[in-house]
Write a structure and sequence with these properties.
Blueprint (H helix, E strand, L loop, with lengths): L1 H9 L13 H32 L22 H7 L2 H42 L5 H8 L7 H17 L8 H21 L2 H33 L4 H61 L1
C-alpha cells in the first residue's frame, strides 16, 4: 500500500490549461459590431413594446386629434373689401365713387370759373373807369361772348341805343327799362355761377346716410354669415365688419369735400353778385344822369 502511494506521488501532475489570449486588433474590430448590435436590439424592443403592451392588456393610448387647419387670411385691402362685399354694398360703393368723381369734376370746374370771372371783372372795371368812351367800349365788347360786368354793360347799352336810335319820343320809361335789363342780366350771371352747386349740396347731405345704409346692410349680412357658420372668432367677424365700415368711409369721402366747397362757392357767388349789383347801380346812375341832360 505504501508502494502504491509512493507511485501516485511520483506520477506526473496534469498541467493546467494555458489562458487563451485574444489579439488586441480583434477587440478593437468587435467594438463597433457590439454597438450596432445593441442599437438593433434597442430598436427591436421599442418596436415590439406596443404589441407587448396590447398582449398584456394595457389600455391603448388614444390618437391625438390633428390640429384644425388655419383659415385662409382675408384680403382686407381696398380692392379686396370691395370684391368681397355684398351685391347691395357694391352698388352703394359704386354710387358713392361716381358721386365723388362728379363732385370733384364740379369743384375743378367751379374753381376755374370763379377765378376767371373775378379776373374778367377786375379787368373790366379797370377799363371802364379809365375814362374810355362808353360808345367805343360798347363797340369793342358787343361782338364778344361777355360775362359778369361786361354782360351787364352790353345789355344796358344795347337798350340805350335801341331807345335813341328808334326815335322814341319820350324817355320817361328808359331808366326803368335799363334797371330791368340789368337785373335780368345779374340774375342770369348768378344762375350761371350757382349751376350744379345743388349736386354738391345733395351729395354733402345725403352721402353719409347712403354710406350708412351700406354699412347697416353689410353688418346684417355679416351677422347672418356668423349665424350660419356658428363661429364668432374675430377672424370670421372682422372682414365683414371692415367691408361694412368701408361703405361709410366712402360716403364721408364723397360728402366732406362736397360740403366744404359748396359753402365756399356759395360765399364766392354772394360776393360776386354784390359786385355785379354795385356796378349795375353805378352804371344806372351814369345813364340816368345822361337821360336828364338829354331830356
Amino acid at each position: 500500500m505504501n508502494d502504491q502511494m509512493s507511485r501516485r506521488s511520483r506520477a506526473p501532475a496534469i498541467a493546467s490549461p494555458l489562458p487563451v489570449r485574444v489579439p488586441a486588433f480583434a477587440g478593437r474590430a468587435l467594438r463597433p459590431l457590439a454597438t450596432v448590435a445593441l442599437l438593433a436590439l434597442g430598436l427591436v424592443v421599442l418596436g415590439a413594446a406596443p404589441t407587448l403592451a396590447q398582449d398584456m392588456g394595457a389600455v391603448p393610448t388614444p390618437p391625438v386629434a390633428a390640429a384644425p387647419m388655419a383659415a385662409p387670411a382675408a384680403d382686407i385691402s381696398f380692392l379686396g373689401l370691395f370684391l368681397q362685399a355684398h351685391f347691395v354694398v357694391k352698388l352703394v360703393m359704386l354710387g358713392l365713387i361716381a358721386s365723388s368723381v362728379w363732385v370733384w369734376a364740379i369743384i375743378v370746374d367751379k374753381t376755374i370759373l370763379f377765378g376767371r370771372n373775378k379776373r374778367e371783372m377786375d379787368q373790366f372795371e379797370q377799363v371802364f373807369w379809365s375814362g374810355q368812351s362808353l360808345e367805343e367800349l360798347y363797340r369793342t365788347l358787343s361782338g364778344r361772348n361777355n360775362h359778369g360786368m361786361a354782360a351787364i354793360f352790353v345789355a344796358a347799352m344795347r337798350e340805350w341805343k335801341r331807345t335813341y336810335e328808334g326815335g322814341a319820343r319820350s324817355l320817361t320809361g328808359l331808366s326803368q327799362r335799363l334797371d330791368k335789363v340789368m337785373n335780368v342780366t345779374i340774375a342770369r350771371e348768378v344762375e350761371r355761377l350757382e349751376s350744379r352747386l345743388l349736386v354738391l349740396a345733395t351729395v354733402g347731405s345725403a352721402g353719409p346716410f347712403i354710406g350708412l345704409f351700406g354699412t347697416v346692410w353689410g353688418i346684417m349680412t355679416s351677422f347672418q354669415s356668423i349665424a350660419a357658420s356658428k363661429n364668432t372668432s374675430l377672424a370670421v367677424v372682422a372682414p365683414g365688419i371692415a367691408e361694412a365700415l368701408f361703405a361709410t368711409a366712402m360716403g364721408l369721402i364723397a360728402a366732406i369735400p362736397a360740403t366744404i366747397f359748396y359753402n365756399k362757392f356759395i360765399s364766392q357767388t354772394g360776393r360776386q353778385a354784390q359786385r355785379l349789383e354795385g356796378f349795375a347801380d353805378e352804371f344806372s346812375a351814369i345813364l340816368s344822369r345822361q337821360i336828364d341832360e338829354r331830356g
